[in-house]
Each structure stands twice: as structure tokens, then as C-alpha cells.
Amino acid sequence: MEAKVNQAHSALIEKCRDGDINAHYELYQLYSKAMYNVSTRIMSNHEDAQDVLQDAFLDAFKSLNKFRGDSSFGSWLKRIVVNKSINALKKKNKNGEVRFDDFHVSVVESNGVHSEEELDYQPEMIQTAINRLPEGCRVVFTLYYLEGYKHKEIAKTLNVSVSTSKSQLNRAKKLLQKTLKTQLI
Amino acid sequence: MSDKWTKYFDKNREAMDTNSPPPDVWNNIERALKGEEKKRIVFPWFRMAASVIMIAAVTWIISLQFFKDSATLNNQAMVLPGENGGESTEIPLANDALQENRHADSSCIEEVVGAIVDTSMGIVLVDSIEADSLVVVLGDIQLSFSNSPVITNGATSPYLYNWQDGNGNKAGTLGLTGGTYISSNHLTQSEWDLDMDGYSSKGKRQGAQKYHYENGQLMIQGNWSSGKESGIITEWSEDGSRKSNENFKGAVGDYSPETYEGIVENEFKDAFKIPLSTFSIDVDAASYSNVRRYINDHQKPPANAVKVEEMINYFQYDYPQPPEEGAHPFSINTEIGVCPWNKAHHLVQIGLQGRKVHKEDLPNSNLVFLIDVSGSMNSSDKLELLKNAFKLLVREVRENDMVSIVVYAGAAGVVLEPTSGANKDRILDALMNLQSGGSTAGGEGIELAYKMAEENLMKNGNNRVILATDGDFNVGLSDDDGLVKLIEEKRKSGIFLTVLGFGRGNYQDAKMEKLADNGNGNHAYIDGLMEAQKVFVNEMGATLLTIAKDVKIQVEFNPAEVKAYRLVGYENRLLANRDFANDAKDAGEMGAGHSVTALYEIILADGSKDGIPLKYQKTTPIQPGEYKDEMMTVKLRYKEPNGSKSKLITHVIKGGDYDQPSNEFQFASSVAEFAMLLRGSKFKGTANYESILERAIGSKGGDEFGYRAEFIKLVKTASIRNYHN
Questions:
Q1: Helix, strand, coil percentages for chain A (3-state, nearest 5)
Q2: Would residue A109 count as lying in a domain?
Q3: Residue A38 sits in which domain range?
């Protein structure tokens, strides 16, 4: 992105740098809900997400000086939350990596008219269905669709290849379709 | 290339963020930001011979946890630096041992606040020394620890205590002579002298005092700083519990300066002999935030700090709003289910839901902040938090609202004349410039605050004094009864009172609640910004706008259906049956949008006769057909906020199917079960953490602000440490 992003909360961030606890609280109020949900979707567990949230905010507050305003504060914070969530997820796993199923599908998108009909589900249902996805493809799916990550970034963040990211995304979509359909019946 | 998922999330992205983090996430962040990490020291239980002990320092809080353990720590010198007290000093007191003993036995955890711990006597010498000073105790002392006032094993020499200011300069000395050997936890008899010369945050301390212990009483002779000459400091009863005399707060032997009134639990009552049960509602929730503070600090809350009704009423319940055009400002909701901690019993839930008032519909407010700026408020969890908390409120006030600020310390004074809510900067300036210092003339402050409120009385508005303090009134009208009288007098002027408690250490729960109750008001304990947000913003209407006053509940039980009943909690809200219809009798207030919940544990009449048949009495209730299935009748009286005549509502509860408890029933009963477990209630039955958690988790519901999620976390913490009394 060119130049500096317009900083909606620069005054607030400035106050935080001066150690104003109310300013910290305001920033927390502004972003905690969104960030909590980012982490909850990755961790698929509330308590882990709370730990991550706490950790991420503290880290962010402590390193506000490093925040240069090249991106919005929200996306800067989101990077921290996503990275912390993924690290926490890795830590929970025995091999210290995000778990991916051995599953490969064609990377080619199926563009059939049929599959492009509009999704008509309540957000809560989609949310529940996402939570039931296997770990790897769940993370890829939420990063891609909900947090706006590109495959390249996902690959880098998760330390996998771009094609794995793509195939996991396809798998996620297929599984979601299936879950949502069976849920409706 | 946008596919249907992209389209879906473009449209529904916001709706995907459904969860809110529980408040304690912020609370932890707040604590960490302030660097308020608590310092914990663990001492061994048994005698430590020939030790040089050093004690404590003190930011505002030192929490010492004493654990039973036979480890010996010899010749240790430990210095704990204060928060601003320069370099931190290593604590050479075997950290490994500390770690190992951490979970040894939580039954003897003690908290000492702002205190010098006189380990030589096993009792606590409480003295609020300056925040950044440190105290070094020199001497050759043998030590014991106990919940009781154990004394040194044979006095040998005068002990000299030096205390220093933050710069290492000697700020005073304290000498102790005397002492008696005692073999067990209880003193037989002993006497010792104390010489003091120096300054503490309470002022100069100088003089010689004689302490004397006999027959379970610790007495002081000589001058004490409050001007009292002699008297009983602390009394121990047979069971080891103790009572401290307010007049000697800070004296040797004034063990725990946080005071809670004792609670004698309600018993089961025979529904035939005593068919009526009458009580005042209680919307306070201070007990919950206070208990939360203890548990999050890894301390078992004292039994009397746990008030079941205040725990239950901390939470909002999903009761329906009263009908728009209804005659009454609240709805009554009742439910009967099986009692979770005693399956042979049932539980009756009575829930009142006050009408919500939108912020824009709130009447104009005339608010007087009455702020304690005495020396004892000088800490980050008191005055600093208080300022930031009020900031949240000031943000909410509107153009037509008026705010004034009165402070009190050595003397009371007006800091801000009535100022329109449009002038937020001026209000905030006055607020942020507050500084602490001096002693606490609470009485004078209250007088002045009410005077301000009266002078600017808004006829149809919301006139309210908001008192913020740690409750440590020690000058002027400091005895509770005098203050209460004053408040009662002021109540007649139509001014309401909100009492906000801050800080730990010398928090005076009983006094604060009494003030609020007698002043037509409410009482909350603020342990962080999140709680301030709850009280001032999320539940602003409930805190600041009274929709009904003197709300009383009277239940008549039908002995044909109910054999016995027990009101869960509300011990200090009980009313005489005849006072129900007595409009001169004060009772609890209900705020806009507030909900109040009460539980009765009942034993159903099953036809079995376990009593001895009486010869001269007819022991079977008359049961005309028309009352069949009626379990009880709930009668409710309240007054309009400006009214003086009460209105009556009657609601009949019928028996039925008890197998489908609602979420609200499940949650309220899980909070009650938790409180009873913490209190060590004799009616706790099978109460246990698994059952509490199971129902709390199952009934979390929407939980907009995350309070229930936080409760679940709190129960988990308590369960890991297995807290119960």
C-alpha cells in the first residue's frame, strides 16, 4: 500500500505510548471482540483463544513503538493475533506443527454453475461448520476467507507450500458444503 | 475471482464475530500493564530458630502466604523493594522451597496487607508504612506461625525494628520487649511492650504501649494513634475465629483489617408453623467482584465475604421485560426445579426484572461525586483506578446533567462546583487533579456532598451522591452508627446514594453496604476498569436510575404442598412479617434494567409424618379445592421512586413438571451452589465443583458481555485449588 494508511486511532495510540491506561482500554474495547473471534476460529477453543488474546494485546501494547503506521492498527494487531494463535496451535500438537490431513485434491476450482448458487445459511451455522473442520484446512479457510490472507501469505505463515494451501482450501469448502447440507436435513 | 464464499463473507463478515472475550482477559492485561504482579512469599510453618527476619516492604499489597511446612529457613535476610523503591533486591529465601510448598496446604493462607509482619509473635503488626519504604527487622528471634497469636518461644532480648524510607534513610524504630513461651496455637498469657518512634502513612507514630493477652483477648494500654487510650484490640473465640476492634485498627494484633460482617445462615422453617417469609430485595453485587479478586489472587475468600444473594445478583438473567403499558415497573418470574445440591429438595426461583430505560430516556441527573482522597487511597488500585473509572462515567453524562465533585480527607471540600455534562473537559480536569493525603473525615464529606446535591436538586431528575472510598473513615463521625444515622436523615431529601468500594487491604465491606442500604442506594466493588465499565456504562441505568424503592417480598407457603423452606442468602435483608405492609420501613431499591433473583430451597409435603402428633393442635392444613396445586403466593410491595405509598403485586406459584429447568434456573442455581461451597454452608449437601461447572457451562446462553464465561473460569480456578470452607 502506498504511503501511510490513514490512522483512525493515531491519537489513541499516541496516548497509549504515554502510558494512559484508559487509552489502552479503549483500544482493547475497539478491537478485542474482532481479535477474539480471529483467534477462536483458529484455535477452535475459547480458553486457548483467551490466553492468546491476552498475550497478543500485551505484546502489542508493549511494542507500540514498533508500530509505524504502514498498515492500519487493526491489521497490524491481527498479524500478531494470527501468529500467536498459530504458534499456540503448534505448541499443542505433538510434532509442533499445524496438523494437515494427508489429502490431495485437484487444485483446479470447480466452477460449475451448480456450486456457485448463493449460500443461504445463518452465520452461526457457518461458524459451527467451520469449527468442525479438521485443523489444517480450518486455519487455511479462515485465514483466506475471513482474514483476507493470500495463499502466498498463508503458505508462509503455516510453513507449507502454496499448493497445499490451495488444496486445503478446496477440501475445506467441500467439507463445509457437506456439513451444511446434512445439517439442513 | 470472487466465489460464493467470498460473496457470503463480504455480506456477513461482521456477523461472523459472535463471541466476546470474558472480562478477566482485560483485567489480566490491566494488571500486567501496571506491573502489579503480586509478590508472594511463603514461609514455613514450624519454628525457625535463630532467624534474622526481614520483612516486608510494601507497595500497597504484600500477600504473604503461610503454609504448613517443616522446612527451616535460617538466618535469612530478605528485602522486598517497594514499587518505586529503587532497585529490587534478590530474595535469598530459598526459592525452591517456596515453589515446593506452594500447594502444601491452602487452609492456612493468610493475607497481610500493607503490613509489617511480626513473625516473632506469630501475630501481625499492621501498620501502613509508606509505599516505597522497606522494613528490616533485626534481632535474634525464634519464630512460629499459626492462625492464632502464637508468641515467641522465650523472649531473650528487646527486638529492634528499623524501618527505612525509599532512600534507605532510617525513618523510625520500633522496639518490642517481652513475650511468653507458648506450646500450642493458643496463647495462655503474655505481655509485652512496644515502643514506637517514626512515621507511617497514617502519620507520626510515637509512644510506648503495653500489650497484654489473657483469656482470648489482646488488650492495649497506652496511647494509640486514634486517641483511644486502652481497650481490647482483638478477641478470639473458642473456635479460633477473631474479632477486631475498629478503634485499634493498625495495632499489633489487629489481624485482618478487611472486615466482613458475620453471616448466620437462614435455617429451614416449617411451612405450617411459620408460613410467611419476608425480606428486602438486594441488588448489590459487591460480594462477587470481591470474591473474584480473592480467587484471582489465589487466595481463598473468607467465608463471610461470600454473600450468596450478591453473587447471584451480579449476573443479569434473561427474564422478560414488563409489558410496555403495564402498571408495574418490573415483571415477576418464577420457576421450580429439583435442588441440585440436594435431590430430595426443590428450589424455587423468584426473579424480578426491572424495566429497561434507554440512555436517552434517562431523566436529567444531578450527580455529586464524593471522593475519598485520604492517605489510604494512595495506591494504583484505589485513587488511580477511581479516577479512570469516573472518567468512563463522565464520558456518558449529557448536556443537561450536572456533575459536582466533593473530596474529603482531613477536611472536606468542593473541588468542582456543579458543572454541565457539556463541559466534560472541566469535569475531567478536576477529576484528574485529585491527589491523596491526610486522614479520612468521611462524615464531614457526606454532609457536604448531600448539601451540594440538595442545593442543586432537580425536581423530576435523578439526584444522587456517588461515594467512592475504601471505607476507611477514621476521623469525625467514624463510628458506623453515627454515619448510618446521618445517611438515614439524608435519605428523606429524595437523594439516592451509590457506594463504590475500591482497593484491598482495609476494605470495609459491612460498613459500605450498611451506608448504601440506609441511604436508598446500591453498593458495588470496583476491582478494575472492566468492572467500572459494567457499573457505569453497561449497567448505567441500573446503577444510576432507581425505578422502584423499598421493594419487599413476602412469600406465603401452602403447607399442604410445602413442608419446609429455606431462603438462600439474604441473611441481612430479612424483615419482620409485619413490616411488609409498613411503609415507614426501608427496603432495597431497584435500578432500571436490573434483575433481582432469590431462591428458596423447599421440601415438598409428601404426606409422610415425621413429627410427633400433637394432642392440642390440629396439624393438618385446611385445603379448599380452589387452592389445589398452589405451592405458594409471592407478594411484592414497592414504591415509585418519589412515592411514599407502596403498591402491592401478588403472584401465585403452582406446582408442575420440574424436569425441564430453564437456563436461568440452571445458572442461578450454579452460582448459589458455588457460593455455598465457598462459604462452607451447612446446607451445601452434595455441592461440588463438577456439578457447578456442568450447569454453568450448559446455561451460559448469549452472555453478551462475557460475565458468565468469566464465572466459569473463576469456578475452574477455585476448583483447581479446591477452595471451600
A1: 70, 0, 30
A2: no
A3: 10-92
Q: Are the C-beta atoms of B392 and B356 separated by less than 8 Å?
A: no
Show the 3-state SS of B113-151: CCCECCCCCCCCECCCCCCCCEEEEECCEEECCCCCCCC
ipTM value: 0.87
**Contact call for A54 and B33, based on CB within 8 A:** no
Residues 159-198, chain B: which have Cβ within 8 Å of A?
A: none
Q: Which amino acid is at B701?
A: G
Give bridge partners of residue B170 from the DSSP assignment: B164
| Segment B65-97, tens digit of pLDDT | 222 222 222 222 223 223 333 333 222 222 222
Which of these three, A62, A92, A122, is where a domain ends?
A92
- How far, in Å, CA of B18 to CA of A33, rounded? 8
Verify whether the Cβ–Cβ distance B8 to A28 is below 8 Å: no
Q: Is B30 an 8 Å CB contact of chain A? A: yes
How many Cβ pairs closer than 8 A exist between chain A and B? 88
| Torsion from C-alpha of A36, A42, A48, A53, nearest 10 degrees | -30
d(CA B90, CA B88): 7
Cβ proximity of B617 and B373 under 8 Å: no
pLDDT band at B700 (very low <50, low <70, confident <90, very high): confident
Q: Per-residue pLDDT for B195 more than 70?
A: no
Query: Looking at the domain that runs over B269-357+548-720, which CATH code has it been given?
Result: 2.60.40.1230
Mean pLDDT, to the nearest integer, of A131-140?
89
User: Given a cut of 60, is residue B184 above it in pLDDT?
Assistant: no
pLDDT tens column, A80-123: 999 999 999 888 887 777 887 765 554 444 444 445 567 778 88
Q: Do B4 and A119 touch (CB under 8 A)?
A: yes
Nearest to B21 among A53, A124, A126 (CB): A53
Residue B145's pLDDT is: 27
Chain B nearest-CA residue for A33? B20
Q: 3-class DSSP state for residue A25?
A: helix
A-contacting residues in B 513-572 (Cβ below 8 Å): 529, 533
Q: Rounded to a whole number, what is the distance in Å from the CA of B6 to chain A's nearest CA?
A: 6
Domain extents for chain B? 34-248, 269-357+548-720, 359-544
Is residue B112's pLDDT more than 90? no
Question: Across residues B332-349, what is the average pLDDT?
Answer: 93
Q: Do A24 and B13 touch (CB under 8 A)?
A: no
Give residue A103's pLDDT.
56
Which of A80, A110, A145, A151 is the best residue to mutate to test the B interface, defined by the most B CB atoms within 10 Å of its own CB?
A145
The set of residues, in sequence order, having a beta carbon less than 8 Å from that of A110 and lying 6+ positions away, is: none
Nearest by CB to B5, from A33, A34, A145: name it. A145
Residue contact A32–B25, C-beta within 8 A: yes
User: Grid coordinates standing for B311?
Assistant: 453473587
Instruction: Point out the residue among A46, A58, A145 whose CB comes nearest to the CB of B9.
Output: A145
The total domain count for chain A is 2
Say if B12 is an interface residue toward chain A (CB within 8 Å).
Answer: yes
Of these ranges, B203-217, B228-242, B379-393, the one predicted with the greatest mean pLDDT is B379-393
pLDDT band with cut points at 50, 70 and 90 for residue A65:
confident
